[in-house]
Amino acid sequence: MEQKLNSTLQSKAPAVPDTFPGIFWCPDLISTRDLGPQGVEAVLHLADLMKARPSVFSRALAGKQMVMFFEKPSLRTRLTFESGMVGLGGTAMFVDQSQSRLDAREKLSDIAHNLERWVDVIVLRTFSQETISGMARHASIPVINALSDLEHPCHTLAYVGDGNNVAHSLLLTCACLGSSIRVATPKGYSCNPQMVADARKIAKQTGAQIEILTDPHAAVAGVDAVYTDAWASMGQEQEAKERAQIFPPYQVNRQLMKEAAPHAVFMHCLPAHRGEEVTDEVMDSENSVIYEQAENRLHVQKSILYLLLGGAVRLPVRSAHA
User: Fold this and answer.
1) pLDDT by residue (tens digit) across 120-165?
2) In terms of domains, do 12 and 114 share one?
3) For the chain: N or C, fewer Cβ within 10 A?
4) Cβ-proximal residues to 172 (8 Å cutoff; 6+ apart), any chain
5) Domain count, the chain
6) DSSP H helical ranges for 29-75
7) Is 212 within the bounds of a domain?
8) What is the DSSP letter of 247?
């Protein structure tokens, strides 16, 4: 059944690049850039199939083990990865790293070479993107970015608010999908220029439309979806008071939503600070899809785990110690 299903998926999913014929070519998910347009479509296609037919995949990753190291607190990311791995027949282990950084006691390469001998996949939620990139350089097993200061690729319109990791991942994902996205941020809080440049480069291949703005009203005018996030991310608590004076014009409220298309949905990766970046009225409205969005994260995480671990042949190991 699994072999037949893999054949069906390969016939429907985008063809992989010629450099790795017949192989899922993404050894890690450090950035949405790792996937590219074909990879993003493959992940979303498989996630849709997994949501519709979960029992077919219930033993897909039997015998596989996943470890998660989280330097930041989490509800949805942790539970969707744990539930997703268990739902695929694997085992999930969690290490609370909130009291100290992952490499505080030991060199990151030493940790990586231990983990690659014990488990099959590493999921990291860290303050620094370099921690995740470093783990991927040294470990011979897949590494997944569950959030860093630069990206949040396991999330994915008009985005209004801080030009943070969520905004970066939305830019890259929309670019890969050939979608139109407008991002409006206050001056001084715009997206990372390199991330914007990378998204524009991908957009040239896919036909995506990317607009970087400072006016939230221009951003939401006539769009199909409005997305926002916290004004101060984890690790920026000391800036919260200052940001609270700057960001109110970017609050998603009833007046701003009226400027979008009548059918426009509201999205937020949660947790939300009600009364700050979004009002209760919008959060609890019929146009809000925040809980459906949270539910779908489960299926996307399962798709990522399956493609990295069980749905295709792995690339050769990268560690000299493997």
Assistant:
1) 999 999 999 999 999 999 999 999 999 888 887 654 489 999 999 9
2) yes
3) N
4) 31, 32, 33, 151, 153, 195, 198, 199, 202
5) 2
6) 32-52
7) yes
8) S
